Amino acid sequence: MMNVLIPGSLDEAVMHYRKDPQHTRYLAGGTQVNRLGRSQSLYQGVLISSLVDADIIREDKRLTIGAGATLQDLVDHAQVPESLKRACLFAQSRTLRCMATVGGNIASVRDDSYLLPLLGALNGEVQFHDGESMALDIYLGERREPSGSIITRVVIPDCTIPVFLERASRSSQTKPALTVACSLGDQFRVYCSAAGQFMRRLQEVEQLAEQSADDQRIISLVQRTIHPADDITGTGRYKQYLAGVLIAQGLQELKGKRKEV
């Protein structure tokens, strides 16, 4: 059984975490810690669900999401863009969506995350309990080993920019082979996550997309850029090819929207 601590503040929660970071996990929805196959005997839980904001606030194009908001909260909110709702709905189970929080999804940095590629494409920024904030790209690059900081909000500066989002899997309920997200604001942004390949921004692909409309060149570059693992969802080579095809498709769709404007 897990030993659960109930702190009175986020600062107290961080204090508990830093006493034993190897065996301590924050608990909000609990969907990560309690996943099937995970050993719970090593974990001490610090319950923060009542301490993190769950508000979703739209101000013109800017969208601020409290880290305690669940995936279902996003689906149900009238001012959340359809692309973000679709990412949440990739989690087929409503029960899971009603438990899983936005902050927990980001902090767990899973290689099969539906949400991270889209938040990256939307130029998301994470804010922390101590007032610090940083781009999602930087957070994923520097904080893969948790420091104990608690995510309190996610900010999307412009949630109206055109987005392409796609997930490939053997069935709607299984782990995805990969997830890709592309967006077109001032420039293209291209993100991909796959088994064994944590979400990353494909800047070389973005640059090529600005210069060339040749799908085959884009597919070839994606294949050389990402290195997913072989697993039950497919071989690494298959995922490289599939990612290239989906990203090329997404970029072509976004270029069409650019012409319309």
What does this structure look like?
- The structure is a single chain.
- The protein is α+β, with helices and mostly antiparallel strands and 261 residues long.
- The protein is built from ten helices and twelve strands.
- Helices cover 37% and strands 22% of the residues.
- The strands form three sheets. The protein has a five-stranded antiparallel sheet with strand order 4-5-8-6-7.
- Strand 4 and strand 5 (62-66) form a beta hairpin.
How are the SSEs placed, and which strands pair?
Layout: E1 3-5, H1 10-19, E2 24-27, E3 44-47, E4 56-59, E5 62-66, H2 71-76, H3 82-89, H4 94-99, H5 102-108, H6 115-121, E6 125-128, E7 133-135, H7 136-142, E8 151-156, E9 163-168, E10 178-184, E11 188-194, E12 197-201, H8 203-211, H9 215-225, H10 236-260
Parallel strand pairs: 1-3, 2-3
Antiparallel strand pairs: 4-5, 5-8, 6-7, 6-8, 9-10, 10-11, 11-12
Helix pairs in contact: 8-9, 9-10
TL;DR of this structure?
It is built from 10 helices and 12 strands. The chain is of the alpha+beta class and 261 residues long. The strands form 3 sheets. A 5-stranded antiparallel β-sheet has the order 4-5-8-6-7.
Observed structural traits:
Enolase-like, domain 1; alpha+beta; 10 helices; Uridine Diphospho-n-acetylenolpyruvylglucosamine Reductase, domain 3; 5-stranded antiparallel sheet
Based on the structure given, which CATH architecture of the largest domain is correct? 2-Layer Sandwich
Q: What structural class do you assign from the helix and strand content? A: alpha+beta
Q: What share of residues are in beta strands?
A: 15-25%
Distance between the termini: 57 Å
Mean pLDDT: 88
What pattern of helices and strands is seen along the backbone? EHEEEEHHHHHEEHEEEEEHHH
Stretches where pLDDT is under 50 for at least 5 consecutive residues are none
Spatial strand arrangement across the major sheet:
4-5-8-6-7
Main sheet makeup: 5 strands, antiparallel
Cα gyration radius (Å): 19 Å
What kind of assembly state do the chains in view correspond to?
A: single chain
By DSSP, the count of extended strands is 12
What is the CATH class of the largest domain? Alpha Beta
Helix content: 25-40%
Q: With helices defined by DSSP (H or I, 4 residues minimum), what is the helix count?
A: 10
Number of domains as seen in the coordinates: 3
Instruction: Label the overall shape.
Output: globular
CATH topology of the largest domain: Uridine Diphospho-n-acetylenolpyruvylglucosamine Reductase, domain 3
